[in-house]
Amino acid sequence: MAVNIDEGGNCYVNFNQDFTSLSVGYKNAYSLFSLNAVDQQLEEIYSSFGDDICLVERLFSSSLLAIVSMNAPRKLKVCHFKKGTEICNYSYSNTIKTVKLNRARLVVCLEESLYIHNIRDMKVVHTIRDTPINSNGLCALAADSDNCYLAYPGSAVSGELQIFDAVNLNAKTMIPAHDSPLAAMAFSLNGSEIATASEKGTVIRVFSVNDGTKIYEFRRGVKRCVSISSLSFSTCKQYLCCSSNTETVHIFKLEKATVAGDRTSLNQNQSNAVGHKSDDNWMGYLKNTVASYLPYALPTQVTDVFNQGRAFASAMLPISGIKHSCAITTIQKTLRLLVASQNGYMYIYSIPLDGGECQLIKKHDLKNIDQASKEQQIVRQESAPINIAEN
């Protein structure tokens, strides 16, 4: 999830679809940074000055940008930044909340509707109207064009998640993800799984997009009034990271655990325990036996807590109370946690192989733009505006 500019003048920060670059929007400019060598330095790819940016999204490592300015929050501009040209612009009847892109589709989210564009010619191919009020523009678009799914809240009062096939243009499934309204969502890189969190911010769930079944459930913590701002699957497919308005970023390991109440697992646990009796492992036998029968002795709500996974690793940020966007990716053959913050800094952490506390190895100032790059401003060619009205 992207982190937006607010009234305090903070930055808009967002990673591209495969975490190879970072887009940063400022009050009077925007910049693109390469993430190929962030352990040592942050390479600026491009900067443009003069616009008050509230959204800037890059399509993978291409030259295609989708931009929304604070001066014209209902207008979407699609640009080719290397050529310095504007491809087209669209005007909507309400403020643009979010823009998502992959190689097949561009999605514009308004407060009560979503517009799906064909990325090749930018024409609107479908509109989802009268959605529940979505003031934060919460939605997700899978990066994989073969599993081109769009997710958005199906209710403003509960955690209902709608999955829409953005290629075949039909509803795929509805997932009752949480009791409380949704606060964050993210697809895995291949679009086969989706992670969700609610406004309570304590439990994170991962579902199969294909049939809506729950695959993982993690407990972030027990603190109340925690606002989760970012969920992100790692590029190696082994981890899920989560950031909130607290100073802690949590990393969960995506590994299968024994499901409490599973009769097969119960019998297997008992068999394994009995097989080790001769090795003076009676305490282990008793522990496994009690754990196996625990689901039958306790209420469902209690056993659910026992089944929830805990964080594999965590990183401590130097500041809390603001939004952060997080990602786990491989930098020069080494796995790294990247955290871009609304205050204009990006933090790079190492991830311990055995879990535990991540170590900060680099801090980058995203606001330290080379003023000489002002000469590289986009000189946009005239393009015909396209008005899209609400019916």
From TrEMBL:
Compartment annotation: Endomembrane system
Any Pfam family: PROPPIN
Keywords annotated in UniProt: Autophagy, Lipid-binding, Membrane, Repeat, WD repeat
SMART domains for this protein: WD40 (SM00320)
Membrane topology designation: Peripheral membrane protein
GO molecular function, one term: phosphatidylinositol-3-phosphate binding
Main location: membrane
Gene Ontology CC, one term: phagophore assembly site
One GO BP annotation of this record: response to stress
Similarity field: Belongs to the WD repeat PROPPIN family.
Protein name (database record): WD repeat domain phosphoinositide-interacting protein 2
Annotated organism of origin: Chironomus riparius
Phylogenetic placement of the source organism: Eukaryota, Metazoa, Ecdysozoa, Arthropoda, Hexapoda
